[in-house]
Write a structure and sequence with these properties.
Blueprint: H1 4-18, E1 30-31, E2 34-44, E3 54-66, E4 68-70, E5 85-87, H2 88-109, E6 116-118, E7 125-127, E8 131-137, E9 149-151, H3 163-166, E10 198-199, E11 224-225, H4 232-236, E12 248-251, E13 257-258, E14 280-281, H5 294-304, H6 308-312, E15 323-326, H7 333-340, E16 360-363, H8 372-379, E17 387-388, E18 391-396, E19 403-407, E20 410-411
Length: 436
């Protein structure tokens, strides 16, 4: 019906034409991340022998977000008038919720064509059967989905890595992703990585490539992988060389921390630095954040839906994403599947209508123009330091105030004196005007 490149191209074009210059990165000095939700509609060709088979597909961006920041715990406010998490994926989902609220308002008012139709139960609504939603992100979501190996020959953005290596502890690639050479306690990249892995007992059948990793060990005892389902032959290939013959020289580093109660990262040199399959909070600059990683949030949406608690009171079923598309960046298909669906396979006792979705995951070969990699390539050896953009943009396909540009959790331009004013509240903090 559609390709990953078609979704990426549509989002990039929307970013260039519909989003304002305000809030976008400063040329040759700043970079940002992009995320969006695309509505895909199947159009039936009724003129072909009376068949109603879908022969055409229309695609439309209904929400979009940019951003790389997340406020620290000390800046959170009890009044709830600040955006804690301004990563692009989270902003795109908030904007998507605004779109859903508006569409439900249209359905209830019977004013215009809506994506919702009356459900079987009186007073409840459901999504039209000819619609589905695709989530796009220009980069792998921070957290478990970005834990991938670094191969010797690769210049990032890299091509997808193979199945064996996606399950090896390695990196979290998000807005604060850094290569090992940027860290103080990093070993020489030229040193070989000759770690081996072994399975732990008690692995249930049918788990496939959905893994959760245990503790890493060094020395003569190989690090362990709990929940893995690799065969003995597959494990024999994991000896510091990728199946292609390329050496796994190291991993990316991240400041993202495991949540309290989880086994922490070992911090050991090489591929054993990170453990995978764990819940993490977004990285912060000195002040620890309380916001879960985008990998963890996407996994939650894949079980509970994207609609939120308020809309669920008015819907028969949750609104799930049918697919996730990632732009050109360091990427692992298996790590994405593990993080978004594999870790949730044992979730049970859910209310009726909820469940772990088998979301389709693809990668596009198109690079986002304001990604860190693209900006770095353009500026070459230009003066100054490349930094993430401090502003975040929210756009939603709604008629009133579709745009919202924020910085540090408040509308851009808000002064300390005006923080307590109503105007200092972001449009993303509430659904004012939504009435049934």
């Amino acid at each position: 019906m559609w390709t990953a490149d078609e979704i990426a191209r549509l989002c990039y074009e929307h970013y260039g034409t519909r989003l304002p210059k305000k809030g976008k990165p400063e040329p040759n000095r700043e970079w940002t991340l992009l995320a969006a939700v695309v509505k895909v509609q199947l159009v039936a060709d009724r003129a072909c022998g009376g068949s109603n088979r879908p022969t055409q597909v229309t695609k439309e961006v209904v929400s979009m977000g940019t951003g790389t920041k997340c406020i620290g715990q000390s800046k959170m406010r009890k009044s709830g008038d600040i955006l804690n998490d301004s990563h692009a994926e989270v902003i795109a989902r908030r904007s998507f919720q605004r779109y859903l609220h508006y569409q439900l308002h249209l359905a209830a008012a019977l004013k215009e064509d809506s994506i919702f139709v009356p459900g079987t139960q009186r007073g409840l609504w459901k999504l039209r059967p000819d619609l589905l939603f695709v989530f796009f992100s220009s980069h792998t979501p921070c957290g478990d989905a970005s834990i991938i190996p670094m191969l010797e020959f690769e210049d990032q953005p890299c091509c997808p890595v193979s199945r064996d290596w996606a399950n090896n502890p390695s990196v979290e690639a998000d807005g604060n992703l850094e290569a090992p050479e940027n860290k103080k306690k990093c070993e020489d990249l030229g040193s070989p990585v000759t770690k081996k892995m072994r399975l732990e007992p008690g692995i249930p059948d049918g788990v496939g490539h959905h893994q959760s990793f245990g503790n890493q060990e060094s020395g003569p005892i190989p690090p362990s992988i709990s929940g893995s389902n690799l065969t003995t032959q597959e494990l024999a290939t994991v000896t510091g060389m990728a199946p292609s013959g390329a050496k796994v020289v190291d991993v990316y580093r991240t400041g993202a921390k495991c949540v309290p109660g989880e086994a922490g990262d070992s911090g050991k040199p090489g591929a054993a630095y990170h453990q995978v399959g764990l819940l993490r909070v977004k990285p912060g600059r000195g002040d620890r954040t309380c916001s879960m990683s985008c990998s963890d949030k996407l996994a939650r949406w894949n079980v509970l839906g994207c609609q939120g608690a308020l809309l669920m009171h008015l819907l028969e079923k949750p609104i799930y994403l049918s697919a996730v598309v990632i732009g050109r960046c360091p990427y692992s298909q298996e790590a994405m599947q593990r993080a978004l669906t594999g870790r949730c396979q044992n979730v049970s006792a859910l209310p009726k209508g909820f469940g772990v979705q088998e979301v389709k995951i693809q990668q596009s070969g198109l690079l986002f123009e304001h990604s860190r990699c693209a900006v770095q390539a353009k500026r070459a050896d230009g003066p100054g330091r490349l930094v993430p953009c401090g502003a975040a943009i929210s756009w939603s396909a709604v008629p009133e105030q579709p745009l919202d540009v924020t910085a540090n959790g408040f509308p851009q331009g808000t002064t300390k004196k005006g923080i307590r004013c109503l105007q200092a509240r972001s449009q993303q903090l509430g659904c004012s005007g939504f009435q049934l």
